[in-house]
Write a structure and sequence with these properties.
The structure is a homodimer.
Chain A (H helix, E strand, L loop, with lengths): L6 H13 L14 E2 L5 E6 L6 E5 L5 E4 L1 E2 L4 E5 L6 E9 L2 E3 L7 E4 L2 E8 L16 E9 L4 E9 L1 H5 L7 E5 L8 H4 L3 H10 L7 E4 L34 H4 L2 H10 L9 E6 L1 H12 L6 E5 L18 H11 L3 E7 L5 H13 L5 E5 L5 H12 L5
Parallel strand pairs in A: 13-14, 13-15, 15-16, 16-17, 17-18
Antiparallel strand pairs in A: 1-2, 2-6, 3-4, 3-7, 5-6, 7-8, 7-10, 9-10, 11-12, 12-14
Chain lengths: ~400, ~400
C-alpha cells in the first residue's frame, strides 16, 4: 500500500531513538506528500485530536483545501492535477500553522517555514540536482563603504571555473525581493541547480552568478548578522534606509569586489543584472545610474510603484534623462517579465510605456499568474538562456 | 509588556499580506521564545483549541515541560535557568510535533526540524556572528573513484585566505555523525562562526576546515542528490555500505582534492582530523590507515563499538598493529573527548585502554552530559585551539 513506507524506514527511526538523545527522529508509516501519477498530490497528517485540519499551499496564489479525517486519526486531502513546479505548503491544525511533520524538506520565505515538493515532467526538472558537473556556491563577505560594514553575499561559480583555472567568466548579478536576502535566489530560486542544468545542456553560457543582500542597513540574512536572533525577518519596507537609493548608486562596490576576487570578464559585454519584485526596482535604478555597465538587464515582476518615491534622491532624479542616457550608451538585451495576475502588472505597463517613450528597446514577456516564486524561477530559466551569447 | 512586540512588527506583517501572495507571513504579537535575564526561557503558543501542549527541548537530553493555557488561548511554559548554549525545541500539540510558529530560526537534525535559541554569556557567545573578519563557506563537489560519483563537501576558508592571496593554510578535516552530512557541522555545529571568532581572538590559527559527507553511497545531503526528495534522511546504519571501510581507506581522495584546489600547507604537520560519533569512528580508522598523514587527531563522543565490525575488512584488520604503526610514525596531539552520560562512554574507555596498551599518548577529556550537539560544539571550541601551534 503506497501510503506506507517500507518497513526498514520504521526500523531506521527506532534505531535512532536508541542511538541519539536529541535527534527526535520519530517512527512513522505515513507518506506525505505523495505526488501521484496524474500530478495530483495527496497530503496526510496524523492528528487524532484535531477538530479541523486544512492544507494551505501556493499552487494557485494561496490555496486552502480542507482535509478529511479517517477513523484512525489520519487527515487526508488531494489536490487537482498540478503543472510541473516546486510548491510550498503548510498545515493549518485548528488555527496553528505547521510544517508537514513527516516531510523533511523545507524552505524559508521571509519569516515562515514551508514544506515543499516537486511536480516533475516540466520546468521543475531544471530544479533537480542531476548527474551533471556542479558549480560551487560560496557565501562570502565584501566591505561596503556605503554601509560602513562587511556584508554577506552568495556567489555561484560554474563547474568550468574549477576545471579551467585560468579561464575568465561573465557575471550575472541577481537581486532578491522585499523580505528576501542573499539566500533567497539559492534556496527558493534554485539558481545553482538551474544554471548547472542549463549549462550542462548547452542552453546557457557558463557564468558567475552574484546574489547580494539588497537591504543595505542589514549586513546579512536574519540570524546571520551580529544582531543574532534579535533581527527577525520582515519585509524590506520595514527596514531603515528602504528606498533611499544608496544601494542602487553604490552597486559598483559589489561589482568591484566580484571582479577583484573572481576570474571575471570585467566589461559591459559580460555583465548582466536582473531582480525580482524589489530587486527589479533595484535593477532598474542600478542600470539607470550605471549606464555604461551592463549589456543585459532583466526585470522580474519588478516593484515599479514610484508613487511614494522621493524623486529628489540622487538615485531617483531625472528618470527620463537617465533612460535616454541608457538608450544612447546602448545595451544588448533588456527583458521585462510580469504575470497578468500580478498586483504590479499596471505599474510594469506604465514603466514599459515610459521606456518606450524614451526610445528604449525592451522585450516585454507576459506570463500567467501572479507575484509568485514559480514565475521568478521560470523567468530565471528563460532569461539566463539569453545572456552572453 | 515584554510579551508583545513593538507595533511596527504587526504593521510589517500586515503590509506583507498586501505585498505578496505566497509569503504567508502572519501578524503576531506573541514573543516566543523569550530568553529571560536569569537565563530561564519562556515559550508561548497561540492554540485556543488545543487540549494539551508541551514544549520538548534538548537542554537535558530530551526535556518535556507541560505548558499552561491562559483564557486568551495562549499556552506558556518557562524552563529552569539554562547554561550558555544553543538549544533546540519543538511543541507537542495534542500529539503533533511542530516548530514554534513565531520563531523563524530553525535547524534540521537528521529528518526533523527544530526551533532554536541561544543562551548567551558563555560558550554560546562563540556561536554568534560577531563584527570580526569572516571566512568563506563553499559547497563544492569532488570526484570519488571509490564511490564512482561526484560528491559534495563543504569548505571553510578563513578571512586571511581572502586577504593574503599567496598564503597557504593548514587543513582540519571535520567529520559528521550517523544521520549527518556535509551540512551538519556548519548548521548545527556553527563551525564557521566558531572559527571566525577564535581566529579573531588569536586563540586559533587561521585554518581551512573541510567537512565531507561520510556516507560514501550518498553523493550529498538529503534533497541535494539526483535522488531528489526520494532520498529521505535516516541514520547512516540504514544506508548501503555502512561500515564497509571504504570511506576510511579512500579518505586520501578528499585530501588530494583539497590540496589540489585550495592553498594548503600540504604536509602532516599541517593536517588535522576529528569527528563526532560515527565521524569519530571514521577518524580513528582514517588515522590508522593513513599513519603518516595527520599530526592532530580528535575523537568527539566517538562511535567506538566494534562488536558488529567485520575485522576482515582492510580498514578494520589488525587494529593493534596499526596502532603501533601510528605510534611509531608519531603525531603531535591526539585528543579523545566523551561525556560521562554518553551511551558510548564505556566503548570510549575500552578504546582508550587499547591505545594505552599500544603505547599511544592520548589526552582524554571527560565532559559532563551525553551524546549531544552541545558537547560537540564545545569540543570543537576546545580542540580547534590546540591545532597547528
Amino acid at each position: 500500500m503506497k501510503r506506507f513506507l517500507l518497513f526498514f524506514a520504521v526500523q531506521c527511526c527506532m534505531l535512532v531513538a536508541l542511538a541519539q538523545q536529541n535527534v527526535g527522529f520519530r517512527a512513522t508509516d505515513l507518506v506525505s506528500p505523495q505526488v501521484n501519477a496524474d500530478h495530483t498530490v495527496t497530503f496526510r497528517l496524523m492528528a487524532p485530536k484535531a477538530e479541523s485540519v486544512k492544507v494551505v499551499g501556493d499552487w494557485a496564489g494561496e490555496s486552502t483545501i480542507a482535509m478529511t479525517k479517517s477513523p484512525d486519526g489520519v487527515w487526508e486531502a488531494t489536490t487537482m492535477p498540478l503543472v510541473s513546479e516546486m510548491y510550498t505548503y503548510r498545515f493549518n491544525i485548528d488555527g496553528v500553522m505547521t510544517l508537514d511533520p513527516v516531510n523533511p524538506f523545507t524552505r524559508r520565505d521571509v519569516g515562515n517555514w514551508f514544506s515543499i515538493f516537486y511536480v516533475k515532467g516540466g520546468v521543475a526538472d531544471y530544479y533537480q540536482v542531476r548527474d551533471v558537473p556542479h558549480g560551487n556556491v560560496t557565501t562570502t563577505w565584501y566591505h561596503s563603504d556605503a554601509a560602513g560594514a562587511d556584508r554577506r553575499l552568495t556567489i555561484y561559480t560554474p563547474a568550468a571555473y574549477n576545471t579551467s583555472k585560468k579561464r575568465r567568466f561573465p557575471v550575472f548579478y541577481l537581486l532578491h525581493g522585499s523580505g528576501g536576502d542573499e539566500t533567497a535566489w539559492l534556496d527558493l530560486g534554485h539558481t545553482a541547480r538551474i544554471l548547472d542544468n542549463l549549462i550542462a545542456e548547452g542552453k546557457a553560457e557558463p557564468m558567475i552568478v552574484v546574489i547580494p543582500n539588497g537591504n543595505l542597513t542589514k549586513d546579512a540574512a536574519p540570524g546571520e548578522t551580529s544582531e543574532g536572533l534579535d533581527f527577525r525577518p520582515c519585509m524590506s519596507n520595514q527596514m531603515p534606509g528602504y528606498k533611499d537609493g544608496r544601494y542602487e548608486t553604490n552597486f559598483d562596490e559589489i561589482i568591484r569586489f566580484t571582479e577583484q576576487n573572481y576570474r571575471c570578464l570585467a566589461d559591459k559585454k559580460h555583465r548582466a543584472v536582473a531582480g525580482l519584485s524589489m530587486g527589479g526596482f533595484h535593477t532598474f535604478f542600478i542600470a539607470l545610474n550605471h549606464p555604461d555597465t551592463f549589456d543585459y538587464i532583466g526585470l522580474f515582476s519588478a516593484g515599479m510603484d514610484f508613487s511614494k518615491l522621493d524623486m529628489n534622491l540622487p538615485a531617483y532624479t531625472d528618470i527620463d534623462g537617465k533612460l535616454q542616457r541608457l538608450q544612447r550608451s546602448g545595451y544588448k538585451y533588456f527583458w521585462q517579465a510580469c504575470g497578468d495576475e500580478d498586483f504590479l502588472w499596471e505599474a510594469n505597463q506604465q514603466v514599459y510605456a515610459q521606456m518606450q517613450r524614451n526610445g528604449l528597446d525592451v522585450d516585454f514577456y507576459k506570463s500567467s499568474r501572479g507575484h509568485l516564486w514559480s514565475n521568478w524561477r521560470q523567468y530565471l530559466v528563460l532569461f539566463s538562456q539569453k545572456l552572453f551569447k
